[in-house]
């Protein structure tokens, strides 16, 4: 086994991958709480809490937290997704104890003062404003809302001005009490680290309230809305065209990765070659997929001048129809398999990527495979599987999200 794992008496999971050929350690404190765990009134609270954990504890100010890591030449950051929140540091191995102690202080003891909440609300609202002014980011939130209109997975991770504007000390404390508990926490580390030492450090410093893993609402896979338009005077039309996809535990997820790579995963992909290289209709065009615990999504993004939007959507549909009717070639299959394997193996040269793989899989209940096992799963993808997944996933009724200078009556026929 390439990793070691211990579940502490209080329910915190500690998982490590020891690499004695490096001098760095990446440490992540993961919590099983993201935007899918919020009510409409709480939309954005997971991300807001990510900000607030950096704003000070009873023993350290926000500036002092930053100074500790800056003085170590370390990396300190955090991120929030739809299913988890992670606080991480990457340090020289000799500073592991300091990093664990300060990270533990941040996530367990943040004061969440009203003054800090008032200040950070404005920061997050500025972040929302920036996202709203960046249509190639906003389109993905629009698409998610169309896929899951009645589920928190459709809520924006950042929340809205209205929801964030209501967050204060009381709301933050209540949210932390519900979600920042031992059963929701995974501490993952990769690098030059002893598993026993990390277990001892977590036992000593990470004093979270005890509690079981939180329940979360099950997501339904069918979209109620097939078209979502945000009319806006933009120079480009931003397009997201796709379907509900496979969940993170599905046996065909590796096959979907291969299909995704063939269609829009790189400069040699079908969509890039047809839309950008041959026709010059877009600068950015790619496909992507996201796997969640009980559902997923697969989609194509393209940015093009409004006059070309209908043609680009037609080309996307044409490529999907071609895969459905003719499949992919042996050459495309092999090229995609090699590309995916290369990205995975090269990514494993980073201790942060290795830590992320451990933490993400454990906090979402995913299957934790060795690199060789992943490579075997990718190499096992065959044409029969490609046909099956194409039929099960890509031939479903599509959902279209668009931002641009349009009226719904002019684009309703595109989906």
Structural commentary:
The protein has 415 residues and is of the alpha+beta class. It folds into two domains: 202 residues, Metalloenzyme, LuxS/M16 peptidase-like (Cytochrome Bc1 Complex, Chain A, domain 1, 2-Layer Sandwich); 188 residues, Cytochrome Bc1 Complex, Chain A, domain 1. The chain is 45% helix and 18% strand. The protein is built from 16 helices and eleven strands. A six-stranded mixed β-sheet has the order 1-2-6-3-5-4, with helices on both faces. A five-stranded mixed β-sheet has the order 7-11-8-10-9, sandwiched between helices. Helix 9 packs across helix 15. It starts with a strand and ends with a helix.
Report the span from N to C terminus: 48 Å
Residues in helices, as a percent range: 40-55%
The computed structural class is: alpha+beta
H-E string: EEEHHEEHHHHHEHEEHHEEHHHHHEH
- What is the overall silhouette? globular
- Which CATH class of the largest domain applies here? Alpha Beta
- Taking Cα atoms only, what radius of gyration do you get, to the nearest Å? 22 Å
Spans of at least 5 consecutive residues whose pLDDT stays below 50 are none
| Total beta strand runs | 11
Give the CATH topology of the largest domain.
Answer: Cytochrome Bc1 Complex, Chain A, domain 1
Helix count, DSSP H or I runs of 4 or more residues = 16
Fourth-tier CATH superfamily name of the largest domain: Metalloenzyme, LuxS/M16 peptidase-like
**CATH architectural group of the largest domain:** 2-Layer Sandwich
- What is the average per-residue confidence, as pLDDT, rounded to a whole number? 95
Strand proportion:
15-25%
Number of domains: 2
Query: How would you write the strand order of the largest sheet?
Result: 1-2-6-3-5-4
